What does this fold into?
Amino acid sequence: IHKSFDETIVLTDVNFRVEEGEFVVLVGPSGCGKSTILRTIAGLETPTSGDVFIGNRRVNDVPARDRDIAMVFQSYALYPHLTVYDNMAFGLKMRKTPKPDIDERVREAADFFGLSELLHRKPRQLSGGQRQRVALGRAVVRKPSVFLFDEPLSNLDAKLRAHTRTELSRLHKRLGTAMVYVTHDQVEAMTLGQRIVVLKDGFIQQIDTPLNVYKRPLNRFVGGFIGSPAMNFVNAAITGKEIAHGQIKFTAPSFVKLNSKSTLTVGLRPEQIAIGETSGDRAKFNLVVDVVEPVGNEMLVYGRMDEEILVIRAEATAYIKPDDTIPVSFDPKTAHYFDTDSGESIRDWSMSA
Ligand code: ADP
Ligand code: MG
It folds into this structure.
C-alpha cells in the first residue's frame, strides 16, 4: 500500500504478509506510519493505492465493522458509564449474540485476564492496568480473525508492561489467532514478535525474526534502532584492506564487501567490545571512561575514544570509575559494516565469519 494525506506521503510501498496465526510486530520511531498501517488494515483509513487482503478476501471496499478484526488502542476507550462486564459484552450485544453465549465468553475472558472479581465495577474504579485488561478482554470476546494492537501497553508502568506482555504472549499461544502489534519500543518488538517489521519514514527497512534483525541488521538504522543501549558507530577510513580510525586499525574481514569507497561505518554492539582481551586478531584501543552505570547484573560504561563516544557492557564486578583509561578490544569478524553514505550493510552474510 501507499498512503498520502494531501501532499504528505506517509507510507511508501508497504508490503508484508502475516501468516495464519502469526504474531507480527510493526516497530519504528514515532511518526513512521505504524498506526496508519494498522488503521488501513482495520478499514479506518483508505489506502491511496494498493490492496489489503484478509485471508483471500480483498477488503478495500469492506467497511471496518465487517472485517472481522478487533483493535486495541493505547487509550483504553472504555465506556465510563458501563460496568466491566457490560464493556466487554457491548460489542457482542450489538451483534445480537445470544445472552448465554455472551455470558460464557465474558466470564472466560475475565478469568484469563484476572478480572473476575471486578466485573461489576465501573472503569473509574480500576487501575490503569486493569482498564487495559478490560480493553483486551473486550477484543478477545469478539473472537475475531485478526487482532490489531496499537501500542496497547504504553500507558502502563514498566513492571505492569512486562507482565501484560507475557499475558499477551500466553493469549496468542492459546488462541492461535493472527496478531499485528504496533510499538515504538524495540524491547516489546523483540519479545513479542515472531517476526518484526522495522519501519522508518513510511518505508519498511527489514522484515525478519527478532534474532535475525538483531544479528543481521540490513542497514545502519536497523542496527541502531534495535538493541539497548544502541549499537556504537565509528566512521573509518579504508586503505587497501586496512580499516582505520584513530587508535583502531585492523584488516577488513573477507566478508566485508569493500568497494572503491574510502570510508565505511563500523557498528559495534556494547557487548561486542570487551575490556582487555588482547588475544588474536582483535582490534585494540583505549577508552577514557566518562560515566559508569551499574545496572545490577552488569555495568554500562560510557567513554571516549578520541572524539567518539562509545558504550560498552562490562561485568558488574569490573572495577572501573570515571576518568580511568581502560584497554578494550573487539573482534572485527563479529562487527557490523555499513556503507557510510547509504547506511546499507556491506557485510556478505552468505560468507561465514
Ligand atoms: P506512528 O503511529 O508510527 O507514530 P502515524 O501512522 O500515526 O505514525 O503517522 C505517520 C505520519 O502521518 C505522521 O507524520 C503523521 O503526522 C501523519 N498523519 C497521520 N494521520 C494523519 C492525518 N489524518 N492527516 C495528516 N497527516 C496524518
Ligand atoms: Mg501511532
